[in-house]
Every structure is written in C-alpha cells, then in structure tokens.
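Quick one - inputs below.
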Amino acid sequence: MTEKQNIAKTTYSDVISLARRRGFLYPSFDLYGGVAGFYDWGPVGSLLKNNFLAMWREAYVEGEGFFEIDCPNVTPEVVFKASGHLDEFTDYMTSCNKCSQHFRADHLVAELHPNPDSLGKEELAGLISEKGVKCPECKGDLTELYAFNLMFKTNIGPTSERPGYLRPETAQGIFLNFRNLYIHNRQKLPMGVVQIGKGFRNEISPRQGVIRVREFQMAELELFVDPENPNYVNYPLLKHISLSLLPDTTEKEILSRTVEEAVEEGIIDSKILAYFVALTQEILLKAGLDPNRMRFRQHEAHEMAHYAKDCWDAEALTDFGWVEIVGIADRSCYDLEQHMKHSGVDLRAMRQLAEPKMVKVRKIEADMKKMGPVFRGRAGKIRDKILALDDDAVAAVESGQPLIVSVDNERISISTDMFTISQTNENRSIERFMPHVIEPSHGVDRILYCVLEHSLKRTVDESGEETRVLHLPPVMAPYLFAVFPLMSRDGLTDNARELYNLIKNELRGRGSLGFYDESGSIGRRYSRMDEIGTPYCLTVDYQTLEDGSFTIRERDSKEQARINKKQVRTALRDLVDHGISLKDWSKKNGVKLISRDN
RNA sequence: GCGGGUGUGGUGUAGCCUGGUAUCACUUAAGCUUGCCAAGCUUAAAACUCGGGUUCAAAUCCCGGCACCCGCACCA
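Output:
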C-alpha cells in the first residue's frame, strides 16, 4: 500500500498522546484538575511496568543471587537525621519583598563564607543582615529565612509528637536492615540487597511529564562490599561489553571502551563499579533502549549527592535532551557509618585475615564492690567513664598520675585499687571494617518513558498517512500475541477463540498476556497491536477450517508465515525467548514465508 | 516559585480578535459489509480546564485557581 515511507521524528507529545490514547499513562487526579508531578500507569502501562520489573528482578535476584526486601514508605525522622537527608535536603530560602523572587540563602552568601552550605539558619540569617545582603535582581529587601525540605512530612500516631517522612529513596530501609541481612547471608560479603518501591520527593516544580515526578517507582540495589577486595565474581562475564562513557575530565568527550579497558585505564574506579555499569546497560538494552541514544556520564564533584563518593549516571537521549535514568553511586561507607553513629549499634562486617595477627588488647576493669559503697548513685557513671578512657589517659595513669574523672560537673579522684588496667597480646584472625556500598538506583518511570520514546517509530507515507509502531522487545510487550479471525463469520471466530485459549493456557503464568480481537478490518487490528507493541499476531483464515493452520505475523517486519497448531509452542519459544526472526525461523523449519506484495 | 505561552469529545483540531451553547478528521461502539495490513456504508456515543465577574446572552471579554509547554531558579 505504501511505496515510500519517511521516518518522522518522535517527540514528547507523540509519546504522551499515544500513551494516553492506548492506556499507558494518565495524569493523576485528572477528574479534579490534576496535580503536577503525579501520573497513573494505565492498564497497558502497568503491564509494561510489570514486565520491566520482572526483568529487573530476574537480573538481580535470579541472576546475581541478591536478596529482595520490602520496607515501609513512612519512615521516622531519626532515620533521615542519621542519613543526612533532613539536613541536606533542607534548603533555607528567602524571597525579595519587592520583586518576590526566591533565592537559596546559602547561594546569596556564597562569596562571604568559605562553606555556606554548612551554615545553619541563624548563622545564615546573621550573615545576611550583618553584610546587608539585598536581592541580587532588584536590590530589594529580603524576607525572613524559611526552610524548604524536599521530603513529604507526616505524623506517626495520633499526635504530632512523632514526625515521619515519606522516604526519598528506598535505600535507607536496606541500610537499616544491614545487620539482619548480613547475618542472614552468614556474614559474608559481597552481599547484594534489592528493593523495588516508591520514592517521594516534593519537587518545587515538576516538569517534563513523567521524567520528574513527586512520587516515583524506584528499583535499587545496595551491594555491600569489602573495600579491600575490588573484585566481583561475575566480572569476567561482562568485561568485554562495550560502553559509551563520558568521564568527568576536562576534555568532556565520549569514550567508547570495553568494561575491561575502562577499568584498566582508570576511567571507572573499580571492577565492581564497572560491572554494575555494564549490567545496567544490559538491562536497559534488553528493555528496549536504543544503544545509540545511551551513555554513562560521570558526575562532576559538585553535583554529587551528600552520600556519594563517585557516581555514574546512565543517560538516555530524548526529546528533552539527555535524561538521567539510572544512577550508579559509590556511597562508600557513608550510610552505615552514619547509622552506626546515631544508633550506637555496631554495623561493621568482619573479614578473615590471611594470617592471624597479634594485637595488643587493653582491658580495663572497674571494681564495683569497692566503688559502689563509696560513690553510690554515681558509681555507674564513673564506671562508664573509666571503661572509656583513651590512650592518653591510660598512659597518664600508668605513669603514676592520679585518675580523675568528671561526672555531673564534679571532678572525682579515683584511687588505684578501684580499677585495673591490663594488657594482653591476642591472636586475631578476623578484623572488623565498614562495608562499602555500590548502589545502582533505577528511576523506573523515567526508564519506561525512554523505552516508549525510543521504541516508537512514526512513518509518514506520501499521502501524509501516519503509522506508528512501538518496537518493544517481546519481554517488555504488554501483550505478547494477539489472535484474530480474518473475518467475523463462517465459524472463523470460533476457531480463533479456540486458538486464543490454547496459547493463552500455554503461556499462562509467565506474565505474558494475549489479546483477542474481531472488530474492524484485519489491517486495523494489526495496527492497533502495532501501537501497543504486540510482537506477534496470529490470524485464523479459511485454510484454518481445512487443515488447522494459521498465519503468524511479525510486527517489526510485517512478514507472515503459515504454521500449524503443533508448532505454536516451539515457534513462540524460538521467536520470543531466542529472538529468532520470523524469516530465519521459517527457513529453519521449512515453512514458506508469505511476503507482502508491495 | 517567578516570567512567557497554551488549555475545545479518547486523539488532533476549527470557532475566540468582531459574544448568540460548537467545525472537521481520526478513534470508539452496534449493524451491514470485508478473503491479510488503519477500505466502505448506516447509526450511535463523546468536548468548550475549573471558579468568579461583565452581559439579556460567554468557548469567545475581564479576574483568579489548576494543569501542560518553554525560560529562570531548583533537581540530594
């Protein structure tokens, strides 16, 4: 029908209008005018999303053997106090009384202080009034400072005494469970733990549709590693993969390197980090991203999150430009260290030493039998002080100086018969250390948008007729196959329904849905399926009535082959699971390919 | 949050300046038809972003809210 077809650019609005029309995406709360930054995944979109998550889970949980856990969205304040989100996520803002523009207070005093980011509210306000800082736009007076935190705040329980926040990332739930998980893993590293869940960030101005939303689907891995062992067991499997890398160097050019080369040239810091960059690429490509519109960009030092030491973002080129879809951060030991400090619980891991080493162990004992009667109620506090003596204090005591501790603002002299300090040499074969964390964090909504944009091909023929085909990989396709009767008469519909049920049952349980349709012309039905990315359409025709065979039509090539019922199972396996094209499959099975006339 | 632009059935639009309850196409549904790539016919369903004001009368003019797009700012 179409002789000349031109591929047309796929824009954001092409994707959004198709997504809405075909049930991928709807703006949330639309009935009441909508709220910026929230989107609903519709029936077709949910299938797409579930397929992605299943694939992601397959890669990490089945492939790498990592644990999956599931933690609450509502999280008490203390967690974010420890993680740094409460402070780091809060910006002190001020606005101009005259032109009502808003500014970050720390930006306004950038030249007046070496590290304005570290200042608290009072200090910032003091600096502003002291130096007479005015609105940089119109020189107007500035309002009082107010705090803006990007986390959604709520209350836990009936009173507001216990503040909670919706988590801005799923990672904290994993860190909080580190001890449980480490024991569950029989105290071995590396240990990977994933979580699929929602994250919440009260963005000031959400933009670009589903790219920046206030509630979003995350899929995160926290890989706990021994920093002295940069190897990863599966590294050889992916070391030959080629990557497009944009490192944070002064040249700022995209380098094409294999994983191995990137590590050897020092472009990527470690084999572990490099492995997960490669695995991320594998997953994204499997999901249907265009390899030519994908790269990994290393963060510049100033854009790194407060917890990160190094970070590579997977970015996809879209109608909006380059968009971050996965962040692969080296969080070093930041989070566990913070939680250890704030909770007082030892979150270190243990490492078996190659050779046992002798260490000097100092033991301080307090004689409570003697101290108790003398100090009474303060005896406990004094004991704690004595047990916590540092090296200098111990040395002082050993050199004969009297031991004096201060408790409740009182200096108390302790006689030497009340405690003993001894030193022994012990043979140690393990040592404790803070595990480091490598974190690939996937923004699922963004990934799905990019998959849609990269998959959607628009072609316009001479008459201006536009056709749209969503070239999704079969693993992502909301519907894996569709069954049509060629005509809705002469018993073809019964045959088609029977075929549909047969295949549906065959594929049941693997999350692949089928679709049955008998309305409209056959071409229209093919086209509907093309728009939602259904890779195969099976059509029952008049020959079916004679010999039970039917045609299978491939979305991407629009080619057809005639197969019989017995072949369905193996055919779908070859086509879907092994990625064989219909052309090759026909050749292999001696089936004639029915090419379209034009 | 500021500034600019936009907002009409599911989608894309005409009408707005110059007020008189809405155009066209696609889509969808039912029926007829149709022997493989959005065919045709008949019928049907379906919209003025929301609120207020002006007016006899508002999609249209005015004000405000909301949403979307762009720029600024923000983006851990």
